């Protein structure tokens, strides 16, 4: 009996020690470490915000911004993916309302909008509709993706060269300078930051003066 009680006591002490240890580790140490890491700003005082020499906040390196131009107006901008969750062909996007459209692959609304986007982009770039890549006509899950594929950027080179009065080689050099590779060399796909390319081309977003 004494041996049985001693064994039970040792098990209770071990179990209590595990509870206390795991509580300290997962209930205190881990949350504190995550909080401390989240406080570290590795992007400078402005975080992900991109600010010009005059202090104008031009946007974020992490949030998509697609410059809008009026019908028939010059269009010297690199354009982003479809932004925003609105069920319309080319929504401008609203950074304060990040969401997806929730249209599934069998949705007639999605199919109709994709084809409308394909037609609009093909006409804007002067290419066959079949040449428009998939990311140009679809949005990310958040609806605020700041990147496009190198293929979509290449599709816009001819227009950018013409509207910016620069050679296609110059435009490609700017795009290449703002193209990010796969994360850690194997995750994701190469991507081009739209806002950074437009700023490098000398174009501040139209919203800058109003911010």
Can you walk through the features of this model?
By secondary structure, the chain is mainly alpha-helical. It has two domains: 1-40; 49-210, no CATH class. Helices cover 43% and strands 7% of the residues. It has a three-stranded antiparallel β-sheet with strand order 3-5-4. A two-stranded antiparallel ribbon has the order 1-2. The chain starts with a helix and ends in an 11-residue tail after the last helix.
Strand order of the largest sheet: 3-5-4
End-to-end span in angstroms?
79 Å
Number of domains: 2
Oligomer: single chain
- Taking all Cα atoms into account, the compactness measure Rg is 25 Å
Helical content stands at 40-55%
Would you identify the regions where 5 or more consecutive residues have pLDDT less than 50? none
Shape type: elongated
| Helix/strand class | mainly alpha
What is the overall number of helices? 7
- Mean pLDDT across residues: 83
H/E element order: HEEHHEHHHEEH
Number of strands: 5
Q: What kind of sheet is the major sheet?
A: 3 strands, antiparallel
Q: Beta-strand percentage? A: 5-15%
List keywords for this structure.
211 residues, mainly alpha, 2 domains, three-stranded antiparallel sheet, two-stranded antiparallel ribbon, 7 helices, 43% helix, elongated
What is the topology?
Layout: H1 2-38, E1 49-51, E2 57-60, H2 108-125, H3 134-137, E3 147-148, H4 150-155, H5 157-164, H6 168-177, E4 179-180, E5 191-193, H7 194-200
Antiparallel strand pairs: 1-2, 3-5, 4-5
Helix pairs in contact: 5-6
């Amino acid at each position: 009996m004494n041996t049985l009680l001693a064994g039970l006591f040792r098990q209770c002490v071990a179990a209590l020690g595990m509870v206390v240890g795991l509580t300290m580790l997962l209930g205190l140490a881990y949350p504190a470490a995550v909080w401390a890491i989240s406080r570290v700003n590795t992007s400078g005082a402005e975080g992900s915000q991109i600010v010009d020499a005059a202090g104008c906040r031009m946007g974020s390196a992490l949030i998509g911004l697609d410059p809008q131009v009026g019908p028939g107006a010059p269009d010297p901008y690199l354009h982003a993916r479809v932004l925003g969750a609105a069920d319309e062909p080319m929504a401008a996007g609203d950074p304060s309302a990040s969401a997806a459209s929730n249209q599934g692959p069998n949705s007639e609304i999605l199919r109709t909008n994709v084809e409308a986007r394909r037609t609009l982009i093909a006409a804007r770039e002067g290419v066959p509709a079949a040449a428009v890549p998939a990311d140009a006509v679809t949005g990310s899950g958040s609806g605020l993706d700041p990147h496009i594929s190198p293929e979509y950027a290449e599709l816009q080179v001819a227009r950018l060269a013409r509207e910016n009065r620069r050679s296609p080689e110059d435009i490609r050099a700017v795009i290449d300078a703002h193209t990010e590779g796969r994360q850690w060399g194997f995750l994701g796909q190469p991507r081009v930051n739209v806002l950074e390319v437009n700023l490098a081309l000398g174009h501040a977003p139209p919203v800058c003066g109003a911010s």
